[in-house]
Amino acid sequence: MKNMEYKVRFTDKCLDDIEEACQYIEEKLKAENAANRLRIKIKDSIKGLFISPEMYAKIEKFDKVKRDYRRIPIDNYVLLYTIDKENKIVYIAHMYYSGRNYLEELI
């Protein structure tokens, strides 16, 4: 039987975005526990992607190379990801503060 599980990979940019957000929460807001909770929520939110990569809503916006993105809302943030069905890989590409017009950056 073929392995039906997808691999989940974070882009370097997304890892930088997550670290930047957590540092802001820890240093500027003085809320180390909140930063740790955010990291845990991110980890928990992607668990289902290994089996069901289409579990989150598609967004109706495309980047320059016409990738379809899906979004994972997490507190005041949103993770955007794409699915490579052929190679069975989910790429978690971006993390944005949800109060910002992040869709404009995908154009």
Question: What can be said about this structure in brief?
Answer:
This protein is α+β, with helices and mostly antiparallel strands and 107 residues long. The protein has helices at 12-28, 32-46, and strands spanning 7-10, 58-62, 68-74, 77-84, 89-97. The protein is globular and about 45 Å long.
Fold blueprint:
Layout: E1 7-10, H1 12-28, H2 32-46, E2 58-62, E3 68-74, E4 77-84, E5 89-97
Helix pairs in contact: 1-2
Description:
- The protein has 107 residues and is of the alpha+beta class.
- It has one domain: RelE-like (YaeB-like fold, 2-Layer Sandwich), CATH 3.30.2310.20.
- It is built from 2 helices and 5 strands; from the N terminus they run βααββββ.
- Strands 1-5-4-3-2 form a 5-stranded mixed beta sheet.
- Helix 1 runs antiparallel to helix 2.
- The longest helix is centred in the N-terminal third of the chain and has 17 residues, at 12-28.
- The protein is globular.
- The mean pLDDT is 89.
Amino-to-carboxy terminus distance: 40 Å
Number of domains: 1
- The CATH topology name reads YaeB-like fold
- Provide the spatial order of strands within the biggest beta sheet: 1-5-4-3-2
Features:
107 residues; YaeB-like fold; single chain; alpha+beta; globular; 31% strand
